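Subject: Sanity check before I submit

Could someone independently write out the structure tokens for this chain? I want to compare against mine line by line before I put it in a report. The sequence has 203 residues.
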Amino acid sequence: MNGATDDLAKMDLSERKRTDYLDWNEYFMATAFLAARRSKDPNTQVGACIVNEERKIVGVGYNGFPLGCSDDEFPWGKASDDPLGTKYLYVCHAEMNAILNKNSSDVKNCTMYVALFPCNECAKIIIQSKIKEVIYMSDKHALKSTTIAAKKMFDASGIKYWQFVPRKSKIVIDFSEIDWDNLNQLPATPVKSRGIHQNGTSK
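---
Independent answer below. Compare away.
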């Protein structure tokens, strides 16, 4: 072993670079999945994350009703005898919302990460926004005409699309993790109240 290798071998794990960190694709797809948790849809929750060429997030969205349309009054159902009684005429998809929520002047040459392959209507918006690449997780609607049409338009427009395959199926967010160092180094002490009731209201 050379000197540098010897020094590395002697280092404690807490002094070495982590090896289990998220790569960029995992990070951005996880952001899309986290955004999906904001959706009120009881049947399908989809999130989308738009990233520019500098690997900066410029837009995030999830499926839901338009602004001003109450989540409690508009229908969430997928089937109804009333043509106006399902969600399909009202819901804005995650891709649309991510583009409209952009924090930059445009999303030209950006990459979109999305949980579910875009439908034909979202494909039109993606193309018109000049997004260059779509990375998706699920293609469970591959045989539907809406998905086939979307791919046909992407191919004609030169937009790349490919399916993301994660290294692991689950990423856990543990809010208590930030305090682990202190918990491991200090004796257990009662957690002092910060003026908050259990129900989240201030004392």
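---
OP: Matches mine. For the report I'm noting this point. Residues 20-180 form a domain with the Cytidine Deaminase; domain 2 fold (CATH 3.40.140.10).
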